[in-house]
């Protein structure tokens, strides 16, 4: 089969390899859609301790083509997606229901072969039926499950004001869930007006273009004089994370959702956290939220169509990677390993 392979930092190749054979508990899936995300860029750059050579790809859906002898819940032909996070259910953290911190944590497309390939293996306990959901939507279950987990941690209350910084695919998923969760007003900030137009289509109550002449603080406090009950930081830019705290109202919360460079630092005044009753919340990956995300997509509660910028075949993966790294990618790029998509340059003008 054909697969994308990260061979060393900043070295990507399209390779031919034998399709994986399922073990007794495994499901072999023909990949129909797989999303490229920031984690893939980090693995490409050598961050997150990748074990090269690595076939990346952890956001995917497809069709079951073979199952191991002990698999009972699935059979060939089933439409499925898989939670890439694999945990032991026995360690210190798993025993305390914090499986995303499992000491034996593995992830499909991070520590073992992933879905930027014609076929991928997943243990049956991580496989979920997607029914008639489109494969493109199926490949959005994983990022949405991370967003569901983040919002479960952030506990939006009816009537809360919410600020989302960053209108990429993740910010726009947060927007849709915050509206569902009962926020009275959701304001979205981004540098790119075209992304904010999509935020408006998806129900943002106000949008603010940052990097303009008017300071961002003036624009935001103009809209919400007391700040926001919840600020969701979805850029991962350290300076933005630091600034985000100033937009949290007294007694409010900051959800640090964007992934910052591992060694970056921000300045925070402890007195301010004390005096203003601030809560700073992290949310790593997902925890038992895959089914909830699948259900939300099946119910039509979240629209992913405006979040897909392009779909590429495996050969064009390196070109898509370049596009994302240069900041010119139109939203989420998905890979179709079965090559049913138009050339990238027809989808993204100027590539
Ligand atoms: Zn991801
Ligand atoms: Zn564990």
Give your account of this protein's structure:
The protein folds into two domains: 2-140 and 304-347, Quinone Oxidoreductase, Chain A, domain 1 (Alpha-Beta Complex), CATH 3.90.180.10; 154-282, 3-Layer(aba) Sandwich (Rossmann fold). It has helices at residues 38-44, 92-95, 135-138, 141-154, 169-180, 193-201, 216-223, 238-244, 270-275, 290-298, 317-325, 344-347; strands at residues 2-8, 11-16, 26-35, 59-67, 79-82, 85-86, 106-107, 119-123, 127-129, 161-165, 185-190, 206-209, 228-233, 248-256, 279-282, 308-312, 332-335. The model has no long low-confidence stretch (mean pLDDT 96). The chain has 351 residues and is α/β, with parallel strands linked by helices. Helix 4 crosses helix 5 and helix 4 (141-154) crosses helix 10 (290-298). Helix 9 links the parallel strand 14 (248-256) and strand 15. Strands 3, 4, 5, 8, 9, 16 and 17 form a seven-stranded mixed β-sheet that branches. The longest helix has 14 residues, at 141-154. Bound molecules: zinc ion (2 copies). One zinc ion (ZN) binds next to loops.
Keywords:
351 residues, alpha/beta, Quinone Oxidoreductase, Chain A, domain 1, Rossmann fold, 2 domains, 12 helices, 26% helix, globular, binds zinc ion
Order of helices and strands: EEEHEEEHEEEHHEHEHEHEHEHEHEHEH
Taking the sheet with the most strands, its summary is: 7 strands, mixed
How much helicity do the residues have? 25-40%
Tally the structural domains: 2
Shape: globular
Tally of helical runs: 12
CATH superfamily of the largest domain: Medium-chain alcohol dehydrogenases, catalytic domain
Question: Which CATH C-level class of the largest domain is it?
Answer: Alpha Beta
CATH architecture of the largest domain: Alpha-Beta Complex
Q: Residue-averaged pLDDT, rounded? A: 96
Category by helix and strand content: alpha/beta
Percentage of residues in strands: 25-35%
Radius of gyration: 20 Å
Bound molecules: zinc ion
> Can you tell me the CATH topology of the largest domain?
Quinone Oxidoreductase, Chain A, domain 1
Measured distance between first and last alpha carbons: 28 Å
Which residues form runs of ≥5 with pLDDT under 50? none
DSSP summary, beta strand count:
17
């Amino acid at each position: 089969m054909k697969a994308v392979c990260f061979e060393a930092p900043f070295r990507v190749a399209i390779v031919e390899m034998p399709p994986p054979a399922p073990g007794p508990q495994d499901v072999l899936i023909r990949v129909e859609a797989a999303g490229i995300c920031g984690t893939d860029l980090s693995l490409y750059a050598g961050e997150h301790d990748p074990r090269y050579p690595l076939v990346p790809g952890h956001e995917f859906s497809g069709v079951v083509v073979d199952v191991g002898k002990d698999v009972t819940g699935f059979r060939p032909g089933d439409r499925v997606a898989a939670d890439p996070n694999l945990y032991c259910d026995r360690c210190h953290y798993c025993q305390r229901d914090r499986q995303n911190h499992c000491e034996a944590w593995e992830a499909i497309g991070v520590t073992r072969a992933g879905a930027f390939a014609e076929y991928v293996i997943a243990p049956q306990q991580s496989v979920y039926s997607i029914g008639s959901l489109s494969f493109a939507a199926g490949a959005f279950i994983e990022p949405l499950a991370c967003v569901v987990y983040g919002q479960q941690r952030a506990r939006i209350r009816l009537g809360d004001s919410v600020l989302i910084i960053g209108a990429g695919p993740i910010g726009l998923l947060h927007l849709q869930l915050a509206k569902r969760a009962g926020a009275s007003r959701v304001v979205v900030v981004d540098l790119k007006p075209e992304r904010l137009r999509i935020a408006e289509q998806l129900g943002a109550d106000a949008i603010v273009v940052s990097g303009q002449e008017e300071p961002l603080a003036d624009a935001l406090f103009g809209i919400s004089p007391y700040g926001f009950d919840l600020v969701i930081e979805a850029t991962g830019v350290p300076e933005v994370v630091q600034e985000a705290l100033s937009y949290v109202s007294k007694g409010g919360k900051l959800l640090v959702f964007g992934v910052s460079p591992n060694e970056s630092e921000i300045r925070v005044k402890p007195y301010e956290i004390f005096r203003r009753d601030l809560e700073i919340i992290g949310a790593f990956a997902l925890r038992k939220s895959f089914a909830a995300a699948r259900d939300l997509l099946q119910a039509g509660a979240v629209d992913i169509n405006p979040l897909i910028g392009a779909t590429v075949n495996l050969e064009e993966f390196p070109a898509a990677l370049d596009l994302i790294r240069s900041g010119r990618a139109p939203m989420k790029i998905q890979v179709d390993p079965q090559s049913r998509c138009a050339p990238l340059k027809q989808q993204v003008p100027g590539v």
